Amino acid sequence: MLLNERLYKSLYRIRRAEEEIGKIYPTDKIKSPVHLSIGQEAISVGVCEALRPDDVVFGTYRGHAMYMAKGGNLNAMVAEMYGKETGCTSGKGGSMHLVDPDAGVMGTSAVVGTTIANAAGTAYALKLKKSDQVVVSFFGDGASEEGVFAETLNFAALKQLPIIFVCENNGYAIHTSQCKRQGRPEIAARAEAYGIPSTVIEGNDCLKLYDATTSAVESIRSGGGPVFFEAQTYRWREHVGPNEDFHLGFRDPAERQPWVENDEVARIGALLPDADRVAIEAEIEAEVAAAIEFAEQSSFPPASELMTYVYATEYATPSAAAPVKKAA
Amino acid sequence: MTSITLPPNETQNQTAGGGVDAGDREISYVEAIREATSQEMARDDRVLIYGLDVDDPKAIQGTTKGLVEEFGPERVFGTPLSEDSMTGVAIGMALGGLRPIHVHIRMDFLMLSMNQLVNVAAKTHSMFGGRLKCPMVVRSMIGKSWGQGAQHSQGLYSYFMHVPGLKVVCPTTPYDAKGALLAAIRDDDPVMFVEHRILHFQNGPVPEQDYVVEPGKSRITAHGDDVTLVGISYQQLECLRAHQYLKDVGVSAEVIDPIWLAPLDTDTICESVARTGHLIVADNGWTNCGAAAEIVAQVTEKLQGKCEFKVQRLGFAPTSCPTTPSLEDEFYPTAQSIAASANDLVKGGPQGWFPEERPELAAVEFKGPF
After folding, report:
1. What span, in angstroms and rounded, lies between the C-alpha atoms of A79 and A56?
2. CB contact under 8 A, B116 and A321
3. pLDDT tens-digit profile of B73-120?
4. Domain B219-348+357-361 indexed as CATH 3.40.50.620
């Protein structure tokens, strides 16, 4: 498949899956708070299309796009949001804790910044094993204010780890703009200060990110150290949930307007011949509908699943007094 | 270095957990940890060890001495002063197929790692529906004496006992230090391995061969009929000394070392308390919401209505640890204060007995200046 077709297929899948999730959300069928990536899909797609299936990604609670872009199972993602036993964590994690190790999706976190260090640890493991796999750490502009960001950049530079840091800068941490939180807004410059080659990717540009990631991956696979991208983007909807949030007054619809006008899903789609684009869209529509149907038809996990997977190594002695209430 | 000398019938229990006979071989707690680490790193190339000062000349009290020469700087290294990130890195290493040992020379420093330990490591297996595992060991050391003060003296293991998904072990003897460390490294869950700096000076029988001390069995370290003394980590030594003091007033104390605090074997403790009718738990931490509180609560839940018994917790005075000796001496439970409390508990009220310190049972202090 041609690159533009691959990019569009991934972009369109994420957009449509999330739009449908947004429509279902008010019905209360989805049992987990969702943080939609709508508007930001180009970052995950541009990066992940330049990776191999055995490369590894770590991300955030706004992780649907990364999960899907890296090849995470769509049925399992939607079922997870429904809280069903067929979900990617069998109903234990929900939307904010997606995982698909078979696709190299090693987990997302609801605590800002935490997976940056986890990604670096896996990068260390791969380097020690002399693997040529690459790790990508996705995080937001808010995470760049956490101590773990600075600590991990220093360690990655020190050990020359095979990792790409991708800061998805959408300008807001929940409802607080970056200019209210950072004395100096150039996040990439901070990474550069640790000795990590850093690039700002402007304009939510999927193709530029694809090219930059391709170069970074080549460099890392041939023994190079970490690379940092500050990818500028914009969150179209509210922090959590399917709605818009302009009524809160912290940002103006005019600010979003250019991002919508330059929608990367539409722009990449327009690069394809109409017939090809329509065929891709039809395929994705069927895939998304099937995923929703799969989630609808799946069962909730039985009560007996409550105490599964607390420990990977079990011993006869319980860790505490037995729960009083026994599952039926 | 000094070892606590026990009567022969009591030392036999030193090997009860792993059941491996050490013969005449006796090494220190420090050497037991070093030996376990070295043997396991040689056996399993997924194991690596790192942390502040791991590769410096002092080598974490000697527990990591020679490892960098043996296994190289990629598997043995010191780190930047970044406990938060380095804990997250351990989790990532575990996800990447390694079995990291992350070392903290002070347990107090673990407070900088809490987010990764509680929010990530503890939850990796359950939150991701069993699809990921997080085998890692976090070694840390509790300090005591010679003015180490409020931020170098804390035994904070109860914080980790509270969180499902974490395991906690506080070995007291060199035998358990080696066996529990081998068990911890081979465990597929995050294990908090808690040492006490004074215990580092203890010698004891340790087999050279491979063995594990796994969760599931508390160890009876001295037999008795009148009161059960559960001593955690360093307080286990104080309880063994209290056992000796109590003979002077005709009180026969059973002493139990839980070894693993999570998972915790309270059955052994309950069997003892059902016989003695009295339980004292001496802890290296504050009593409020502490390990002693948890042990007392579990024993009470299991035994209430079945037999009569009395309980008492002993731990740090409810304040920050002071530095000056005249106050620091009052901060900790001691063999004498444990013995006095046990005597009062058994005899049903204040007896006015507080034993004179016997030099042959005196604590082995961490000697300054350093």
Report:
1. 23
2. no
3. 999 999 999 999 999 999 999 999 999 999 999 999 999 999 999 999
4. no
Please give the ipTM for the structure prediction. 0.95
Q: Do A92 and B129 touch (CB under 8 A)?
A: yes
- Return d(Cα A209, Cα A229) in angstroms, integer: 9
Assign B297 to helix, strand or coil.
Answer: helix
**Nearest residue of A to residue B114 by CA position?**
A114
Cβ contacts (< 8 Å) between A86 and chain B: which residues? none
Instruction: Give the right CATH number for B8-205 from 3.30.420.310, 3.40.50.970, 3.40.640.10, 3.40.50.2000.
Output: 3.40.50.970
Tokens read off for A108? 């997302």
Q: How many CB atoms lie within 10 A of CB A172?
A: 20
Alpha-carbon dihedral of residues B189, B96, A13, A292, nearest 10 degrees? -20
pLDDT digits over B299-352, tens only?
999 999 999 999 999 999 999 999 999 999 999 999 999 999 999 999 999 999
Q: How far is B127 from chain A (nearest CA, A)?
A: 5
Q: Say if CB B316 and CB B331 are below 8 A apart.
A: yes
Nearest neighbour of B119 by CB, restricted to A114, A119, A311:
A114
DSSP string for residues in B124-159: HHHHTTTS----EEEEEEE--STT--TTS----HHH
User: Taking CB atoms and an 8 Å cut-off, how many pairs form between chains A and B?
Assistant: 177
Find, among B134, B138, B38, B47, the residue nearest to B91 by Cα: B134
Query: What distance in Å separates residue B9's CA from the closest CA in chain A?
Result: 27
